[in-house]
Amino acid sequence: MNGTVKVLIVSEKPSISLGIAKILSNGEMETHKAITPVHTFSGTFQSQPAFFRSTAVTGHVYSTDFTGNNQNWNQDPALLFDADVKKDASSKSMCRHLQSEAKGIDVLVLCLDGDREGENICFEVMENTQPFMNHGGKYTFRAKFSAISAPDILKAMNNLTFPNKYESLSVDARQELDLKVGVAFTRFQTRYFSEKYADLDSNLISYGPCQIPTLGFCVDRHDEIIHFQPKPFWKVQPTVDLDGNRMVLQWKKGREFSKASAEKSLAAVEAAGAGKVTAYTESSGQKTKPLPLNTVEMLKIASSNLGMSPNQTMHVAENLYIQGYISYPRTESSAYPVHFDLEEVVRKQLSGDFPSIAKQILQQGIVPPRNGHDAGDHPPITPMEVPSGFFDSNESRLYNYIVQHFLATLMGPCKYRKIHTEIQFGTELFSYKGRRVEDHGFTAAMPWLRPADEGSSSKFKVGQEATLVAASLVEGKTEPPDYLTESELIGKMEKHQIGTDASIATHITNIVNRNYVRMGHCRTLIPTKLGVALVHGYHKIDKQLVLPDVRASIENSISAIATLKDDYRSVVAKSLREFADRFDFFVKQISQMDELFEAAFSTFEEVELDSKVKPICGNCRRYMKYINLRPSRLYCSTCEETYGMPLLQKHGGKIRQHGDFTCPIDGFGLLSVTV
Asked: Cβ–Cβ contacts within 10 Å for residue 120, how many?
């Protein structure tokens, strides 16, 4: 290419586009209004004079949907497995914007997110730019970076690669499978149950290959709690005086489920009156520092320690990334790159909120981080700059945690001395444990993980006598586990490959929004009767619909597309055949799930209806019934059809019949709503 090269840079978000433009132009640029701003500036591209235009999309340019009549809910859902799908423009104005910006451009540089979803968006952008570019779009490159910082952006621009077609196809495969499987099951079970039961408390009874296994984990814990049978137990608990130290001892048996046996042991201790030290040991122990931070671990910590939902956490993390404060927040890696300049990142924190910790690390030297997993996507989440201020407290709290976690990974373990004493009363053996922290190590950066000093630090000798001060029988009973916390659920999803670091938050949000679970204390997830009935129903008909194995298998197949081990069409065809067979069997056996719904919900005939609201059905000309329960609906018993009332559901208000007027288009009776 001769003369000035015209370069178009497309980023995933307008704020990223702005950040890149500021770096490449040294702040000397012009900004033009468009659907997303366009920043223009002069510079060099691969040693040639260049004129740059930097703009952005706002996520996916296209969405996957069914064609034509396949969007009709009255169609047999079984046909959807073989139905054609299409890519619809999420925003036609965005397509026009990209096409307009591409005219006369020589080079396209794609600065989309560095995961598979970002790769897929690359090809969506290419479809709207390459046909309008000079040279037929031949000069299209991919820039990959992990932070909106000058070193990262300049390095990416000097090491451009190419878009990966196969990673993009793996996303297309997942989208098609999730669409066809999810919509087929959702349409069937929504119509089947919403037309029969009045108090489902949900407009949509959805199924998703990730969503339902996620719900399944919550219901499994619920079942464990419901079926738990508490057992009473007893413990012998003596208090002794040993060399002037009063100590409460722990029974080596732990507990006894026979009260008579426990009483016998207590009597033996009281009869002995004094015990003897039979063993005394001191040993070193340590608490291991954390691995470098990846997305899943960040979501777990934010939920359990900061009280933030996964969706909220990702939103805050993306804002921090866009502002250049942290590295890319979607990563599976928990190992720093070999040549990563850890000392430089620590040095920046000297002006942050933890200067004493940063100074300590620089003075004492970096302790090599633990060997984590290098997924080959992005480095672990790392602080990049010290902010001058935050938009809100959530940004501040999450950023500070990321800093503390990073600093902790470069410090030593927390070391302590363990003291173990065993004392025997006749045939009964008891123990006493103590602990003294000797080196705080990484807990200087994460003080909430610091173990406390426990027990006496006195040294005892074998054969010393321990005088019995008191002895008692402590009664208790076994307790069930608590409901799954959000943090525990994220861990299970990661272990069983349910969703990705980019989608885990969405799946959890979905089961809450669908009213399958509700949020309890300490961010526990408590299944509703709808969620329980669904999972138990899937187990009765086909447990593979709810177990995580099938989804993990699909994820492995999709990954095989990205790594060229299998091709797109064969993976999609095989997976669809499997789910089509499962759907056919599910439909034939739906009565087994219906038995559970009958026990949990009320039919339209069983609920008290509002007799004042009786609009005419436009199909059979009979009166419909108004179901004044969540979700509000109209029910025609003749046609066996229900009709949702989304505006009333969303805004609330009072409803009344609008005289005897009917709609001139479809003949249905008119209602008026007062909000």
From this structure: 24
Of 240-244, 384-388, 407-411, 663-667, where does the model show the most confidence?
A: 407-411
Of 148-152, 221-225, 252-256, 429-433, the one with minimum mean pLDDT is: 148-152
Which two tokens mark 65?
């949907």
Alpha-carbon distance of 106 to 135, in angstroms, equals: 7
pLDDT in tens, 629-672: 667 778 777 776 778 777 666 666 777 777 778 888 888 888 88
Helix axes 486-495, 211-226, angle to 10 degrees: 120
What H or E segment, with its residue span, contains residue 477? strand 465-477
Output the pLDDT for position 17. 93
Residue 238: closest CA among 208, 268, 278: 268
Percent of the chain with pLDDT over 70: 97
With both helix axes pointing from N to C terminus, report the angle between 548-562 and 165-194 in degrees, rounded to the nearest 10: 150
Closest CA to 298 of 309, 288, 289, 287: 309
Q: Do you find a cis peptide bond into 631, omega within 30 degrees of 0?
A: yes
Q: Are 39 and 61 in contact (CB under 8 A)?
A: no
Q: What DSSP character marks residue 601?
A: S
- Other CB atoms within a 10 A radius of the CB of residue 324 amount to 21
598: amino acid identity, one letter: E
Q: pTM of the prediction?
A: 0.82
Of the candidates 98, 122, 96, 93, the one whose C-alpha atom is nearest the C-alpha of residue 109 is: 122
pLDDT, tens digit, 9 for 90 and up, residues 194-206? 888 888 877 789 9
Question: How far is 293 from 608, CA to CA, in rounded Å?
Answer: 54
Burial pattern 552-582, b for ≥16 Cβ within 10 A else e, equals eebbebbbbbbeeebebeebbeebbeebbeb
**DSSP 8-class letter at 141:** E
DSSP state of 155: H
| Interatomic CA distance for residues 295 and 380, integer angstroms | 8
Give me the mean pLDDT over the 223-243 stretch: 95
Classify strands 107-111 and 5-11 as parallel, antiparallel or unpaired.
parallel
Element (H, E) at 158: helix 150-158
Using CA atoms, how far apart are residues 301 and 487, in angstroms rounded to an integer?
7
Reduce the secondary structure of 256-306 to three states and give it as a string: ECCHHHHHHHHHHHHHHCEEEEEEEEEEEEEECCCCCCCHHHHHHHHHHHH
Tokens of 130: 């390459």
Cα dihedral sign, 593-598-601-604: positive
Contact 215, 551 (CB under 8 A): no
How far apart are the C-alpha atoms of 330 and 146, rounded to whole Å? 10
In DSSP terms, 108 is beta-bridged to 8, 140
Q: Output the average pLDDT for the chain.
A: 91
CA-to-CA distance for 470 and 408, rounded, in angstroms?
44
Query: Which positions are annotated as active-site residues?
Result: 328
In this structure, the chain runs to a length of 675
Cα–Cα distance measured from residue 218 to residue 481, given in angstroms and rounded to the nearest whole number: 12
559, 240 in Cβ contact below 8 A? no
